[in-house]
Design brief:
Layout (H helix, E strand, L loop, with lengths): L1 H7 L7 E2 L3 E2 L6 H11 L3 E4 L3 E2 L1 E2 L1 H14 L5 E4 L3 H4 L1 E2 H11 L3 E4 L3 H6 L1 H5 L3 E7 L19 E2 L6 E4 L7 H17 L4 H11 L17
Parallel strand pairs: 1-6, 2-5, 3-9, 8-9
Antiparallel strand pairs: 4-7, 6-11, 10-11
Helix pairs in contact: 8-9
Length: 218
C-alpha cells in the first residue's frame, strides 16, 4: 500500500499512518472474544504473540494528525513503549473475562475446553485454551519502523514520524498490476499465485502457510 501511495505521491502530496491493532474492531481477535462469549464458546489465544493496541478514538486521531500536519511522504505512528504497551493476547483474554465477571479456567486441550463451557459457566468461570501459535500469518511482535528508515521522535509527545520517502521501483509495481489484471481476466487464481506476486514486490516478506488460521481455530 505504501509503495502505491509513494508512486501516487509524485503527483499529489500524500501522508499516511501506521497504527497498532484497534481494540475490539470487527475481525480482530479481541472482537472474537466478545463473539465467543455470546455464543458460549471457549476463549482461544496464542501464548507467544504480543500486540500493541489503540482505541478507535486514538486510531482516528492518529490518521487525522497525519492528514492535517503530515508533510509529503511522511508516515505517522504511535509512540508506544515495548516494555509498557506490548501486551500478550493471553493477558488481554484474562483481563477481558475478569471484566465480564468470569474467572479464566485454563484447559489443556481443545476437547476439554469445548466440553466444559456449561459446567464452568455456572461457577462464573470460562474455559480458555492457550497454546503456542500454529496458525498462518501470526508474527510474534509488531514494529512501526525499520532500521533503515529515517524517523523523527521529537516533534510530538505521543507520535513518531517516518520522514523518508519510500523508494519504489515503478517497473515492479507495473508488473504487479499486469499480473493481477491477468489473474482477474482468467477468472481464477490460487493463494500461491498471490504469495508469489507479493514476494516479487517484497522479497523480505516472511510468510509461511501453516494451513489454518487463528480466526477459525476451534
Amino acid at each position: 500500500m505504501e509503495m502505491y501511495l509513494s508512486e501516487l505521491g509524485e503527483k499529489i502530496s500524500i501522508s499516511s499512518a501506521r497504527f497498532a491493532n484497534v481494540a475490539f474492531s470487527d475481525g480482530s481477535l479481541l472482537h472474537s472474544f466478545e463473539e465467543r462469549l455470546k455464543l458460549g464458546h471457549p476463549i482461544v489465544a496464542p501464548t507467544d504473540v504480543k500486540r500493541y493496541f489503540v482505541t478507535p478514538r486514538e486510531s482516528g486521531i492518529l490518521c487525522l494528525m497525519s492528514c492535517l500536519f503530515g508533510e509529503k511522504g511522511e508516515i505517522y505512528f504511535p509512540k508506544l513503549d515495548e516494555d509498557t504497551h506490548l501486551v500478550s493476547f493471553t493477558d488481554i483474554a484474562d483481563k477481558f473475562l475478569e471484566a465480564k465477571g468470569f474467572e479464566p479456567f485454563y484447559c489443556t486441550s481443545e476437547e476439554e475446553a469445548r466440553s466444559s463451557v456449561e459446567s464452568l459457566r455456572q461457577n462464573k468461570q470460562w474455559p480458555c485454551f492457550y497454546s503456542p501459535s500454529d496458525t498462518t500469518g501470526e508474527k510474534a511482535y509488531e514494529e512501526f519502523y525499520m532500521e533503515d528508515e529515517a524517523i523523527s521522535l521529537d516533534k510530538y509527545a505521543d507520535l513518531g514520524i517516518v520522514t523518508q520517502v519510500l523508494k519504489v521501483d515503478p517497473s515492479l509495481l507495473q508488473q504487479f498490476r499486469k499480473e493481477i489484471a491477468r489473474l482477474m481476466e482468467q477468472g481464477a487464481w490460487s493463494k500461491e499465485d498471490l504469495v508469489r506476486l507479493f514476494h516479487m514486490l517484497l522479497p523480505e516478506l516472511d510468510y509461511e502457510d501453516k494451513g489454518k488460521y487463528l480466526d477459525a481455530k476451534m
